[in-house]
Amino acid sequence: MPIVTPQIFAFIGVVVALTVTPGATTMLITRSVIAHGRKAGFFVVLGGCLGVFVHATLSGLGLSLILVQSARLFEILKWLGAIYLIFLGGQSVWRGLRQKPNELSSLNHRAPVIENKTRWRSFSEGLITIILSPETSVFYLAILPQFINLGESVLPKSLMLASIHAIVRLLWYSTLTVSLAKITALLKRPRVQQWLEITSGAALVFLGLKIIAKQR
After folding, report:
1. In a 3-state reduction of DSSP, which class is residue 9?
2. Residues 6+ apart with CB under 8 A from 37
3. Which stretches within the chain are classed as H helix?
4. Confidence of residue 162 (pLDDT cuts 50, 70, 90)
5. d(CA 204, CA 216)
6. Using CA atoms, how far apart are residues 27 and 3, in angstroms rounded to an integer?
7. Among the four residues 11, 59, 91, 93, which has the most C-beta atoms within 10 Å?
8. Measuring CA to CA, which residue among 28, 194, 26 is closest to residue 122?
9. What pLDDT shows up at residue 190?
10. CA angle, 200 then 180 then 163, to 5°
11. pTM strictly above 0.85
């Protein structure tokens, strides 16, 4: 049986559309690159790629079925995701508002070294954001099973499809990270960077509030 089938091409089309649509991950990468540089953005990307395997594993093991059948559990997941986005966005807005321009200027002239603590924080933010993402949860609860044929081993097929999803995310968001890093390097004026950080944080807060609004 060929590995690359029309079904796989259809799945690739779906995950490409899901990935390139601006959302929480796009805003999170923007926030991380502005605040900590390109490497932080890459760690967010890696965390998100691991997150899709978490979703695929849960889906393959059937734990997703419990979630999709419980409206209360799914609502709790959405609220957790929304609160987390608001928290991350609020951090950026607060940091941008209280940061003085001269402090930003001094940060711009430091060597672009990211401590391990910042790297793992960026990684965990990317991972947690994708795990708590309602859109990704719905995708793995409702869409992914459509690409698993009767008689196929569910968990291996789920992980294989998640690998495709992770590759698409890695390619797209890595390109986005590099592009944002180049743009940020051109906009080294402290006031501009301060505005960018506040704006990206506000966008995360807005996404979180939008999720909460859908619950009502």
Report:
1. helix
2. 112, 114, 181
3. 6-20, 24-36, 38-61, 63-69, 71-98, 101-108, 116-131, 134-138, 154-186, 190-214
4. very high
5. 20
6. 34
7. 59
8. 28
9. 66
10. 95
11. no
What residues does each domain of the chain span? 6-214
Judged by DSSP in three states, 196 sits in: helix
End-to-end CA distance of the chain: 47
Render pLDDT for 66-121 as a digit per residue (tens, 0 to 9): 666 666 777 777 787 788 888 888 877 877 777 665 554 444 444 444 467 788 89
What are the tokens at 84?
Answer: 């987390």
Amino acid at 74: F
Per-residue tokens: 58: 């849960």
Q: List the structure tokens of 117.
A: 């603590």
Selection from 121, 122, 119, 132 nearest residue 24 by Cα: 132
The encoded tokens of residue 209 equal 């509030």
| 67 contacts 141 by C-beta, under 8 angstroms | yes
Ranges 47-51, 60-64, 83-87, 180-184: which has the least confidence: 60-64
